[in-house]
Amino acid sequence: MSDSGIIGDQGFIALVNQLPIACILTCIRDNTVMAVNPAFEQLLGWPGEQLVDHTIEQLPIWLSAEQRAEFFLELTRTGSLNQSETCFQCENGRVKHCLVYVEQIMVGDEDCRL
Questions:
Q1: Looking at beta carbons, which pairs linking 49-56 to residues 24 or more positions away fall under 8 Å?
Q2: Phi, psi values for residue 106, rounded to 5°
Q3: What backbone torsions phi and psi does residue 63 show, to the nearest 5 degrees?
Q4: How much is the pLDDT for 7?
Q5: Burial 40-62 (b: 16+ CB within 10 A, else e)
Q6: What is the mean pLDDT of each run of 10 residues along the chain (114 residues)?
Q7: pLDDT at res. 8
Q8: Residue whose C-alpha is closest to residue 32's, from 57, 69, 64, 15
């Protein structure tokens, strides 16, 4: 059987990096950020190297602990988000209003969220 139709972890991350919309890829098992694409960096100003390998809960993008908890409560309840309105903290201190989409996907052998 050929693996030619399967994109590996690095191939998938390379693909995400080409997307013009802001994306952050997290591992569901431990909520660790696996990748942040350039569009995400441009939108919020946070360099990917400050976010990758941290848990999504540790990221400086949240306005408050309450906002973060509400976001994850909705995500846990539904398993995905479709046009969920929320605000994120930019690196320069500004607040961005965003529509958020979150889907569960498989990347390699890992259950992930994108």
A1: 51/24, 55/30, 55/31, 56/24, 56/26, 56/31, 56/32
A2: -100, 130
A3: -75, -30
A4: 55
A5: bbeebebeeeebeeeebeebebb
A6: 53 86 94 95 96 95 95 89 94 97 91 93
A7: 66
A8: 57
The answer to whether the CB of 91 falls within 8 A of the CB of 46 is: yes
Q: Which amino acid is at 86?
A: T
Q: Which residues contact 47 (CB under 8 A, 6 or more apart)?
A: 41, 91
Q: Which two tokens stand for residue 78?
A: 């539904």
**Token pair for residue 86?**
């929320």
Q: What's the pLDDT at 16? A: 87
Q: What single-letter amino acid sits at 103?
A: E
